[in-house]
Amino acid sequence: MTQKRLFGTDGIRGTANVHPMTAETALKLGQAAGVRFVRGSHRHRVVIGKDTRLSGYMIEPALVAGFISAGMDVMLVGPLPTPAIAMLTRSLRADLGVMVSASHNAFEDNGIKLFGPDGFKLSDETEMAIEELMAGGSANQLVAPDRLGRASRLEDAGGRYIEAAKATFPRGLTLDGLRIVVDCAHGAAYRVAPTVLWELGATIIAVGVEPDGFNINKGCGSTVPEHLRAKVLEHKADLGIALDGDADRLILIDEKGDIVDGDQILALISCSWLRAGRLTGNGVVATVMSNLGLEKLLAGEGLRLERTKVGDRYVVERMRATKMNVGGEQSGHLILSDYATTGDGLVAALQVLAVLVHSGKPASEACKVFEPFPQLLQNVRFAGPSPLKHPRVVAAVADAEARLGATGRVLLRLSGTEPLVRVMAEGEDEAAVRQIVSGLCDMIQSAAAAEAA
Q1: In this predicted structure, what is the pLDDT of residue 1?
Q2: 55, 101, 103, 331: the active-site residue
Q3: I need a surface site. Which of 17, 286, 336, 405 has the fewest CB within 10 A?
């Protein structure tokens, strides 16, 4: 298969108004995706949502023009979480769903994610076919004037998602008596997330709910949990919920101010569902970054941990192949396929809250499901060719793996967007882990310098 140029692991992303994240690209993408997905004689529909960044006002209308020119009707829903767009695409029997967002990135960036009629992200093959059409094959396939699409706004889209999210919380339980801080990162969930929690009975302290086009993810949200921690302690809350800009990622803060990452949330939900007879596939899907402590816990429960490359789309693909209904990433993408086709931070938080309510335990107790192995990740920037195959780096990795033995591991991987090597080591001895990561970083820098010389 030809290498994709525009699409990465999560759609197209880049600096707004700089190639490829321009209005021109968005127009061509709308035209090409429209041509690709217009099949049959029915009225074709596309659902378009976005987060709160300023450049959404540039990208969205360009997409609309492209889809209309390909003969598709457009339904605009405004700022809503990414999982809401996936849900609405299926619910409305649309042919395509589009989310304009750069997730946890700063406001300067933007991106475009596409969902098929089943609510799942498009395959590599479909994205490649769209790229080929964008390169010159769609202009002569646009429709005649009498077959142009129309654009309309779906006024109750937020309410539909609110009801769908609430329906994932066990019937008969409420959040009465719980004080919750929810940080919406000034992003796509700034209206719907506090509303869901409030309607289920919680006392809500909402932060990150005043978007101005520039402040999305700025000093708040799931990538800056310190902001939420301070609010949880200030308000003596039972739990803090941090979402990212498009609300497909979740990090929690317990009542003591400690961070609960995606691995602990995966462990909590999977064990809860196992005891309730709801866990399918006899295991959980996570990525190569998930902690060995999670793997050890699951093994003790008779479950296996399926590991994939980093990226929630790869987690979803493996979940579908193995029929597992719980998967996610340490960084906070949690996919619960009983409820959603992609990561949904709010829905995952509701499953954790259901455990807290049912057990009566504080978050600091309930969310400490396993003891994590010491794990350290550092980035090494390099110039020139990749240093990962350099003989000295290969030998250093082998030595590190031998030192850690069966109770540890080393992982080196290239960044998909920058000239960086991500160096991770994990094991029972924290001092050894630190020494190994430091030594590998030095070796990679030395090898890279030698390659570049």
Answers
A1: 45
A2: 103
A3: 405
Complete DSSP assignment for 256-290: TS-EE-HHHHHHHHHHHHHHTT---TTEEEEETTS
Separation of alpha carbons 381 and 419, rounded Å: 6
29, 15, 102, 97: which is closest to 62 by C-alpha? 29
Provide the pLDDT for residue 447.
87
User: Is the pLDDT score of 302 beyond 90?
Assistant: yes
Closest CA to 445 of 378, 387, 358, 369: 387
Rounded distance, CA 204 to CA 169, Å?
17
Q: Facing residues of 179 across strands?
A: 203
Q: For the beta carbon of residue 152, count every other beta carbon within 10 angstroms.
A: 10
Mean per-residue pLDDT, 156-185: 97
Domains of the chain: 12-155 (3.40.120.10), 161-366 (3.40.120.10), 375-452 (3.30.310.50)
The whole-number average pLDDT for the span 228-253 is 97
103 is catalytic: yes
